[in-house]
Design brief:
Blueprint: H1 2-5, H2 8-53, H3 58-116, H4 121-147, H5 156-177, H6 183-186
Helix pairs in contact: 2-3
Length: 199
């Protein structure tokens, strides 16, 4: 028994068994529902015959009512069978969903186990500690780079001296450009102060 239970073809048959059972039950349910409609029609016909013959032919009316009662009894049995089949279909569908859900959960568990492999919490702790150390080292390197100037600090006195030399050079160039232009013109038309001369 166990050999066929775990065999390839047998395993496929087991997997397909719920679907086949539900299909068979639905076919039977369809047949019973047709019988239900047929019995209801038969009851309606016998009821009409009984009403039509109640005054003129009591024997025919009694026979029609008897057949109606038989149809009612058959209808009750058919309704009970329909309810039982519907319950069976529901139970098999629920069991099949439970089985497939459990199989999916087992597959998920196996996948997680394969992903984790030989990983342990100790491995995780070691890795996280290494990451923390590298992060701290990165922070220290960044702080060192930003806190130390790359060039020597500028000498402010030397800077002032260079600035004064540039200003003097600019004045010298302006003086040379005046050439033969009268001094008054270079001074914007202002006259030079008068100089006293001796006797």
């Amino acid at each position: 028994m166990w050999g066929t239970w775990f065999g390839g073809n047998s395993a496929q048959r087991r997997k397909d068994a719920p679907k086949k059972a539900i299909l068979d039950l639905r076919q039977q349910l369809d047949m019973l529902q047709k019988r239900e409609r047929h019995l209801e029609n038969q009851m309606a016909n016998e009821d009409k015959k009984a009403r039509d013959n109640v005054s003129s032919n009591k024997t025919a009316a009694r026979a029609a009512l008897k057949r109606k009662k038989q149809h009612e009894h058959s209808l009750e049995q058919t309704n009970g069978q329909i309810s039982m089949l519907e319950q069976q279909i529901y139970s098999i569908e629920s069991a099949n969903i439970n089985q497939e859900t459990l199989a999916a959960m087992k597959n998920a568990g196996a996948a997680m186990k394969a992903i984790h492999g030989k990983m342990t919490m100790e491995d995780v702790d070691v890795t996280m500690e290494q990451l923390r150390e590298q992060h701290e080292l990165t922070q220290e390197i960044g702080n060192a780079i930003t806190s130390m100037p790359i060039t020597e600090p500028v000498d402010e006195d030397e800077l002032e001296s260079d600035l004064a030399a540039l200003e003097q050079e600019k004045l010298d160039e302006q003086m040379l450009r005046t050439g033969t232009v009268p001094v008054a013109d270079a001074l914007g038309g202002r006259a030079l102060p008068a100089v006293e001369t001796g006797p």
